[in-house]
Amino acid sequence: MFKLHDNYNKLLQIYKISSNIIGTPLLPSRFVPSHQNIHEFRFKTSGAGERALHERQRQHMARGLPKQKPIVGVKEVIVVASGKGGVGKSTTAVNLALGLMANDQSKSVGILDADVYGPSVPKLMNLKGNPELTDNNLMRPLVNFGISCMSMGFLVEEVAPIVWRGLMVMSAIEKLIRQVDWGNLDYLVIDMPPGTGDVQLSITQNIPIAGAVIVSTPQDIALLDARRGAEMFRKVNVPVLGLVQNMSVFQCPKCNHKTHIFGSDGAKELAHTLGVEMLGDIPLHLNIRETSDKGQPVVVSSPNSPEAEAYRRVAAAVVRQLAKHPS
């Protein structure tokens, strides 16, 4: 009898504590003693009580999170992300960086390849070799086309797979961010890996991000993941500067007939739904693919082409949005 009474009191205590802490009892209502006044257990939803609860939750969530620390010498960080791979994110990131500098020659720009498992920047920027070390034991970025570049691809063999668990990847990202002598940069463009995982969270929680650019094709399946990516950045309080609709249209080089292979205006509709800017359309064009494979991005190798102009328009739109979201 005494044991049963003790268990009853423990259940009652758990119910009270859980109600006070999280507002949702750990025990279903059928375990609440019927002879007790139900108002004794009801969570108060008054303004003051609700505000206090939200403040406790905020403090609890903030506990253990790293404090954001700017990258030395870097004024603004722009992340280029996508919900899924294969939508042209890295090509967009590289040409965005080049477009930022092409639009304003006074600006210094760098690019960080944060896609540890599949680094593309070395190939796109036609760079090979290991970074040199400064007297302070910091890595010097490799430079081409006036852009400072750092990538895991500079530290491993070109065809070597990166078979690492999460903690090793996080350590590598930390080194690529903190142990690099970036000099003085107006913009650092970070080519993020696809998805919404550890790397994205680690970067957004450790350094101040001026804004995120989401890249997607107009295809419905890509847009679903692009929306997840945008919502992730909102959850971690990173401004979404807008969407880039890549591979928006294919124009036949012989007859000039335009075909929307992946659909039309899907990213524009998503941008409207999310309430963010549509930064621009990039066509599906042979020139972009060929120049990228040669390590001669279209913005520098064919600066007068419509494709290069499309990337420069995206870069100009990004700068306008940054002005609206001062960091």
Structural account:
It contains eleven helices and nine strands. Strands 1, 2, 3, 4, 5, 6, 7, 8 and 9 form a nine-stranded mixed sheet that branches. A hairpin with a 2-residue loop joins strand 3 (142-144) and strand 4. The model is unreliable at 14-45 (pLDDT under 50). It starts with a helix and ends with a helix. It has helices at 2-22, 47-62, 89-103, 121-124, 166-178, 198-206, 220-235, 266-274, 286-293, 298-301, 306-324, and strands spanning 74-81, 109-113, 142-144, 147-151, 185-191, 211-216, 240-251, 258-259, 278-284. Helix content is 41%, strand content 17%. With 327 residues, it is an alpha/beta fold.
Brief rundown of the structure:
The protein contains eleven helices and nine strands. The chain is α/β, with parallel strands linked by helices and 327 residues long. Strands 1, 2, 3, 4, 5, 6, 7, 8 and 9 form a nine-stranded mixed beta sheet that branches.
- Work out the helix count: 11
Question: What is the number of beta strands?
Answer: 9
**Ends: how far apart?**
65 Å
**What structural class do helix, strand and pairing data support?**
alpha/beta
Give the low-confidence spans: 14-45
User: Can you give the helix content as a percent range?
Assistant: 40-55%
Mean pLDDT: 82
- SSE pattern, N- to C-terminal: HHEHEHEEHEHEHEEHEHHH
